[in-house]
């Protein structure tokens, strides 16, 4: 894996953001956007596989990792603005964007509000938001709200991975940034819950690949089909047996598909 360079920048409102860059300086830029209540560590075990083809860029969302301060009003649109500020700082005019879970919601807003900054999109295990989205089963939401400590961690782990996955919950990078305060976690919950791009999705013009696991109970697979119907010319790929962390558990299939799609899209642009 390439050495990852860490930098600190100020967003447009002065909020400090910590960013991480790896891969060849002259390669096409790939912005990786992680899920709710997670720092860039979400991508630690995956980003190395992109570094032969891309200059990979991540940043810690406000309230995670090295990006801490007074949060104020947050939304997927404001996080998309932060992403644009990161690209500005790095001198990147256009980037391919791979967003998973809440990161996929932010990716939608980046493509909608900053369309010239986005060359191609991959949306993983995400949702259009709003009343048209398919909500997770009621019992899943109730369990996530009720359980605490190790029980909560194990339940979340089971939502991400099949029983065949050999990495334990203790070592997963995707179960939340445990340095977050309750207020920071609540703010992220609101950001994800309040996302609604339904009306504007047909405006997305960048080549788009939508991927989802068909056994995802955190974010039902029907949302992938809705996104596919709403985003013109989009491609859809459903992973059999995949849960919410399908893109990690089945990375040997998913990552090459993502790289192939993005490479082909960039060659056509």
Structural topology:
Layout: E1 5-10, E2 16-22, E3 29-33, E4 55-59, H1 76-90, E5 95-100, H2 102-113, E6 118-124, H3 138-146, H4 149-160, H5 182-193, E7 208-213, H6 222-230, E8 235-239, H7 246-249, H8 251-268
Parallel strand pairs: 3-4, 3-5, 5-6, 6-7, 7-8
Antiparallel strand pairs: 1-2, 2-4
Helix pairs in contact: 1-2
Explain this structure to me?
Helix 1 (76-90) packs across helix 2 (102-113). The model has no long low-confidence stretch (mean pLDDT 96). It is built from eight helices and eight strands. The protein has helices at 76-90, 102-113, 138-146, 149-160, 182-193, 222-230, 246-249, 251-268, and strands spanning 5-10, 16-22, 29-33, 55-59, 95-100, 118-124, 208-213, 235-239. Helix 2 links the parallel strand 5 (95-100) and strand 6 (118-124). Helices cover 34% and strands 17% of the residues. With 269 residues, the protein is α/β, with parallel strands linked by helices.
């Amino acid at each position: 894996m390439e050495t990852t360079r860490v930098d600190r920048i100020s967003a447009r409102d002065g909020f400090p953001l910590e960013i991480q860059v790896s891969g060849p300086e002259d390669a096409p830029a790939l912005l990786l956007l992680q899920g709710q209540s997670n720092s860039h560590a979400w991508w630690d075990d995956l980003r190395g596989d992109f570094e032969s083809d891309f200059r990979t860029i991540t940043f810690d969302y406000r309230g995670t990792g090295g990006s801490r301060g007074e949060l104020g009003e947050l939304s997927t649109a404001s996080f998309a603005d932060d992403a644009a500020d990161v690209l500005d700082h790095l001198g990147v005019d256009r980037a391919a964007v791979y967003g998973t879970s809440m990161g996929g919601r932010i990716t939608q807003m980046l493509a909608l509000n900053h369309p010239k900054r986005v060359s191609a999109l991959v949306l993983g295990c995400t949702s259009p938001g709003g009343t048209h989205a398919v909500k997770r089963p009621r019992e899943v939401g109730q369990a996530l709200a009720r359980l605490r400590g190790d029980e909560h961690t194990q339940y979340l782990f089971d939502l991400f991975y099949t029983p065949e996955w050999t990495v334990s919950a203790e070592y997963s990078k995707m179960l939340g940034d445990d340095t977050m305060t309750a207020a920071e976690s609540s703010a992220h919950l609101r950001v994800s819950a309040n996302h609604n791009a339904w009306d504007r999705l047909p405006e997305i013009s960048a080549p788009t690949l939508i991927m989802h696991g068909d056994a995802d109970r955190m974010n039902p697979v029907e949302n992938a089909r809705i996104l596919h119907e709403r985003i013109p010319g989009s491609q859809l790929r459903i992973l059999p047996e995949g849960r919410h962390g399908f893109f990690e558990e089945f990375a040997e299939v998913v990552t090459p598909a993502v790289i192939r799609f993005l490479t082909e899209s960039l060659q056509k642009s």
